[in-house]
Amino acid sequence: MTRLDADLGHIRAANPRRGIRSWTLISTRIFRVHWMLLIGAAIFSTIALTLLVTPWIAPFDPSSQNILKRLASPSAAHWFGTDQLGRDVFTRVLYGGRFSVAMAAITLILCAVVGTIIGAISARAGGAADELLMRLVDLLVAFPDVVIALFLISVFGPGYGTLIVALTITGWTPFARLMRGLTLEVNTKEYIEAAEALGCSRWFIIFRHIIPNTLGPIFAISFLRFGHKLITVGALSFLGLGVQPPNSDWGAMLADARNFMDRMPWLMITPGLAVFITALSVTLIGKGIELERNRGRDENASSPYLK
Amino acid sequence: MNMIDTSLANHRANPCPATPMLSVDDLVKHFRIRGRLGRQDLVRSVDGVSLDVMPGEVFGIVGESGCGKSTLARAILKLTPVDDGRVLFEGTDLATLSGARLKSFRRNVQIVFQDPYAALDPRMTIEQSLMAPLSQHRIGTPAERNAAIVAMLHEVGLDETFLPRKPSECSGGQLQRVVIARALLLKPRLLICDEPTSALDASIRAQILNLLMDLKSRFGLTMIMISHDLRVVRYICDRVAVMYLGKVVELASRDVVFSNPAHPYTKALIAASMLDSEEVGGLPEVPEGETPSPIRPPSGCRFHPRCSRREALCGQLPPRLDTVGGAHWAACHFPQSGRKPEV
Fold this sequence. Notes:
The complex is a heterodimer. Chain A is mainly α. Chain A has helices at about 5-15, 15-30, 35-50, 55, 90-125, 125-140, 145-155, 160-170, 175-185, 190-195, 200-240, 250-255, 265-300, 305. In chain A, helix 5 (about 90-125) runs antiparallel to helix 6 (about 125-140) and helix 7 (about 145-155) runs antiparallel to helix 8 (about 160-170). The longest helix of chain A has about 35 residues, at about 90-125. Chain B is an alpha/beta fold. Classes of the chains: A mainly alpha, B alpha/beta.
């Protein structure tokens, strides 16, 4: 065997391992991601998937009543027991979650979009417009958002449409504040100056240069705010201002369960735990993204010059 | 033309009878910063600069860091509001431009920045960065724009394989070529180069300068070359303005500035840049001390605390930019003389 053959043989022998190696590469990639992001994403995707397929997997109809079996303890048939009207609590937690999570998500996305655009405009405009918008933010922050939402709901009437609008009006401020700071930072970059010198329009600069370069922190804070949104939606529903019967979400379930707390704590614990676990998982994702970003920044702090 | 006539004529260093492409007229730009104890401080970044740039010339602006060169460039581009004075581009006062007329001015004057890594959006591909000026000015159809981008990439010595790349996948020299291509896509007549080579490796600087000179003749550009590197200026500029602490201290053709500098600061600057060459015999005249702060510039002549030729007058009266013979202007009470006259 010549040396060349020996080399080729070595390569041939190594070749079958390439498949295995690429698999280990993918799995190490996944496990290099921060554990908070990993666990949060795992829990939340399970929750989201379950809620998505609820109509097909729910063991009972959420509104079918069975007075004979009212306030039953958890059993094989009714995993979380039954409520005061004999409805299956597990089914109701699933259906309630669809409302709660969807409303929190829609509100959050609206808040993020509105806040990001207003924050970017404010920072780019500067001067009196900037001052006016930021004082408006101060004004809205000064009132608790539940109070403002209560006021708006009392004007426009309860219902989830009003709830989403009310929470958006009160909820965009943290995004606008963060975005304003981020925009001021990006504004000092030479590519913004270059875009101005090239005659790019202000919308082009905001949507094509500033927003793409600030998306990371906005993404992180969106996830971190999700828990807050879920609890605010829950609180307003608890007060009877959100989803109206016969539909129900986690907040409304908590309100219903209040009267039976001493006899049947499961009624209260299950929707409460659902809110807690969902909020925790999304917050973990947000925290994980933030840590991941910081880690990336440390690693290639001077990368453009090293690459 | 005698001394009295020129000193009366509003401080204009206008040696040619032709109309200038760009006139900067007593331009003032101050930055307000918050000093200690909430006091407002004024940084006199550009403090009364007048100069003319003639069509087709390469006009150099030199001076050390912080002397206001880049601020002057940004004022000429109308990227920053000015406090006093005006900038005329082909007779039009930039202060009067807005909306559509400002946009058409943008097509005439472009800039190449110092740091190509910062001048390109890291999230955009080269293609997106190059497409932006054309689509924003609604030049041509999408197919024509693509063709124009590819043609321009070839002009600057790159090719279409760069289109899908991100800035992080290119070298500094390649990115500077992209920045130059982007500026030239709008077919400007005046190109301002703000230290286009100082962020690049020494081996690439000459390539970029040669490219700029090559493009200048092919596109018929007028150029303003801002630099702190006198070798760059000596290599490519026709006329040179030397700035010190927000003021022009000397303005003349390149040969005059380098062979017969009248201002002691210019002399020191040239001496410092020639340390390694044999043209200057003996130890150069290096100015004493540090550059003063532009927040509290010295009284009288701003260079006087560091000047070897200062006299009592220098600390009291700021010198005016006056001719010291023909098209050679200097702001010095005691301009250097006795060397051979201008070339």
